[in-house]
Amino acid sequence: MPHPTPTHHRLGPYRRLFTHPGTRAFTLGNLVARLPMGMFSVSAVVMIADARGSYALAGAVTATGLAATALVAPWVARLVDRHGQARVAVPATLFAALGGVALLLCLHYDAPDWTLFAAYAATATTPNIGGMSRARWAHLLEGDPDALHTANSFEQAADELCFMLGPVLAAFLCATFFPEAGTLVGGVLLLTGMFLFTAQRATEPPVAPRTKARSPLRSPGMPSLLAAFLATGAVFGAMEVVTIAFADERGHRTAAGVLLGLQAAGSCAAGLLFGTLKLRRPAESRLPWCTAAMAALMTLPLLAAALTSSLLLLAPALLLAGMATAPTMVTGMALVQQRTPADRLNEGMTLAVTALLGGVAAGSALGGWTVERASAVTGFGIPVTAAALALLITLSSRARR
């Protein structure tokens, strides 16, 4: 019998992953429901700016939605842990969809500005579909750390793919049809995917017996880990704003989407490759190395921008820079799973995502401030600084532990 080719061997772990009954069905629902997560903010900005003629208002509304998510998402995740995914995720998603519909109606009927904030804040009840999917893998692959590592890598790659394609799809729908098209299609995809995902009851993790386990925030090592997620989110947020500004300064703003897509593509590819590796060192030992690689590779866009000012050279620099983010996120999520009590797993992973989103917001604001006060080239120093801060946090945390 011929030996398998290297490509065949690399794909093996993922093929084995989906031999478990029901995994393909819940993954399909997961991907369909996850794609709109990259659509909603772009769609809301386009829709509000078109109706009210103010990007400042549009930005303020979406920022309010992000703040509401930071407050509401851990609470929704706690309910999922206590009552099960299907019982909580479906009504929570329906309520979030109603918030999107309310936003459309407020804009259509020229309601006061404050109603836009209230309507968009209601969408914060959207469950963390990525966290629920990771919880299913953790349940199905209990006792098989190699397979769980592959599953976590796949989930991270799926995150990157959806956040790469979502904004592109939203912009296409809003520009080709009408400004509300992105929000409407996103809502339909979210509901369809969530119904399909929660219908797969055979793979849903059972509700863990309630214990007096402390909040994930009080678990040993979790505060510093969440701080590292916050710094990593700042890398993403700053890089997005600064890259757009850099391209805009050179009269090629439309190229910014391609550049950011390359960064996401690099992360997606690295995540899939990372999932095929047989890792022997524990996640706690790997995280400093991953964050060190991220800090080192984030200097490439800064060097390309400072030394050449060329978009053509910035493109491969962003592709390479993106390759360190997925391994960092996969390893960080593995530590979240290890450090979170079993009956509060969704809550722990949602806290990590919330920290990440908080970092994205902070990084976007700081990146924009730096571009305004200095230049886009200087702004590329923000992701480098944020990645270095993530490295310092992980090193100091490990030294304390």
Automatic annotation (TrEMBL):
<feature type="transmembrane region" description="Helical">
    <location>
        <begin position="253"/>
        <end position="275"/>
    </location>
</feature>
<dbReference type="GO" id="GO:0022857">
    <property type="term" value="F:transmembrane transporter activity"/>
</dbReference>
<protein>
    <submittedName>
        <fullName>MFS transporter</fullName>
    </submittedName>
</protein>
<feature type="transmembrane region" description="Helical">
    <location>
        <begin position="88"/>
        <end position="107"/>
    </location>
</feature>
<feature type="transmembrane region" description="Helical">
    <location>
        <begin position="287"/>
        <end position="307"/>
    </location>
</feature>
<keyword id="KW-1133">Transmembrane helix</keyword>
<feature type="transmembrane region" description="Helical">
    <location>
        <begin position="31"/>
        <end position="49"/>
    </location>
</feature>
<dbReference type="InterPro" id="IPR011701">
    <property type="entry name" value="MFS"/>
</dbReference>
<feature type="transmembrane region" description="Helical">
    <location>
        <begin position="348"/>
        <end position="369"/>
    </location>
</feature>
<keyword id="KW-0812">Transmembrane</keyword>
<feature type="transmembrane region" description="Helical">
    <location>
        <begin position="313"/>
        <end position="336"/>
    </location>
</feature>
<feature type="transmembrane region" description="Helical">
    <location>
        <begin position="224"/>
        <end position="247"/>
    </location>
</feature>
<dbReference type="Pfam" id="PF07690">
    <property type="entry name" value="MFS_1"/>
</dbReference>
<feature type="transmembrane region" description="Helical">
    <location>
        <begin position="375"/>
        <end position="395"/>
    </location>
</feature>
<keyword id="KW-0472">Membrane</keyword>
<dbReference type="InterPro" id="IPR036259">
    <property type="entry name" value="MFS_trans_sf"/>
</dbReference>
<feature type="transmembrane region" description="Helical">
    <location>
        <begin position="56"/>
        <end position="76"/>
    </location>
</feature>
